[in-house]
Design brief:
Blueprint: H1 2-13, H2 19-52, H3 66-91, H4 99-129, H5 143-152, H6 173-197, H7 203-221, H8 223-236, H9 239-246, H10 252-261, E1 267-273, E2 278-281, E3 289-292, E4 296-297, E5 300-301, E6 304-310, H11 320-323
Antiparallel strand pairs: 1-6, 2-3, 4-5
Helix pairs in contact: 1-2, 1-3, 2-3, 2-4, 3-4, 6-7, 6-8, 7-8
């Protein structure tokens, strides 16, 4: 499907249009030809991983490991390219077809596919350098440093621009875009304010956050700029920046604003559920039940930290059993529903 949709669009846009439309058409042709080259090179690599990645699963009942995840992300990227190619095929004759915009879209996914191809080659090297069935290096010989250097040389900005969150469900992408825009806008103003306010403690985040509101617009309308700035921030800024960014919502000003504008919920309790199995009655037959085992990971079982939020107080939410699971925390939190 990928080859056919690319070949059809390449044949259509190779007609030799002039002006800006001609330039966009040439960019589309170039991007689709390059996508075909990447896909052709990826076929044997993905087939090779598909034949062996079951050896690295968590256990026979949980088919999950990093190799599977990487292959799935590559397939998601290819599916997005096919979807975009079919959209172009359907709408390319329309008077409202935006050739330049679609060219930028295809170029972005082409760049993402190129970087995923590089990641697959790194993973393939890791697979070959390790002994059979081992995820980690048995004999270092400088391999870890080599992998870090090669990963650092990759261009990761394409994953934070137009392609942000392509591997997730579409419903979560607006949230990811909002976070990315807020992060790069905050990062742009961080160093500018940090030198003058570093000695003033909690004042710095306010000034940076306020300035970020005025600079976030350009990152919303320019995905390429957002991706480039995101890559710069993640590589160059220190841990103090990340602490300042993630603690914005914990400041007294924003907490007070949330308390005034958000709806107060009736139940908002932090719970610590002990790792013990319990019996849950079936909805269809209350006489029958199923045993719920506590979740476990490589560190073993541990208490499950969760939060119970309810707009109304419902039956059982103020019972002694539930109250015994509550854990202490800070002041009350207002949540918007």
């Amino acid at each position: 499907a990928l080859y056919s949709v690319c070949e059809e669009n390449v044949a259509f846009f190779s007609g030799g249009a002039k002006g800006t439309q001609g330039d966009a058409a040439r960019r589309l042709v170039g991007a689709m030809k390059l996508i075909q080259e990447h896909a052709h090179s990826l076929e044997p690599v993905i087939s090779g991983f598909a034949a062996v990645y079951h050896h690295f699963d968590f256990d026979p009942h949980i088919p999950a490991n990093g190799y599977r995840s990487l292959v799935k992300v590559v397939r998601c990227c290819l599916l997005h390219i096919i979807h975009k190619g079919r959209y172009i095929t359907t709408n390319r004759r329309s008077n409202f077809f935006r050739a330049a915009h679609n060219a930028r879209e295809m170029e972005a996914y082409c760049n993402a596919l190129c970087q995923l191809r590089a990641l697959l080659y790194l993973a393939q090297r890791l697979l070959h350098d390790n002994s059979h069935g081992n995820l980690f290096f048995q004999d270092e010989s400088g391999l870890s440093e080599s992998f870090v250097r090669e990963y650092a040389s990759m261009h990761k900005g394409c994953f934070y621009g137009r392609c942000l969150g392509f591997q997730f469900t579409p419903a979560i992408r607006p949230c990811l875009q909002t976070l990315a825009i807020g992060l790069v806008a905050f990062g742009e103003n961080y160093k500018r304010h940090n030198s003058g306010l570093v000695d003033l403690g909690g004042i710095a985040p306010y000034g940076v956050a306020a300035s970020s509101l005025f600079t976030s617009g350009k990152y919303a309308i320019d995905p390429e700029l957002r991706g480039t700035e995101f890559e710069r921030i993640t590589q160059n800024l220190d841990v103090h920046f990340w602490k300042s960014f993630w603690n914005i919502t914990e400041t007294e000003v924003l907490s007070s604003l949330a308390s005034m504008t958000s709806t107060q919920v009736k139940v908002n309790r932090a719970l610590s559920v002990p790792p013990v199995p319990f019996d849950l009655p079936l909805a269809a037959n209350h006489r029958a039940s199923v045993t719920i085992a506590p979740p476990s990971a490589h560190i073993g079982t541990a208490p499950v930290q969760m939060r119970l939020i309810s707009y109304d107080l419902r039956e059982g939410q103020d019972s002694e059993t539930l109250l015994s699971l509550c854990r202490s925390e800070g002041g009350a939190i207002s949540l918007s529903l």
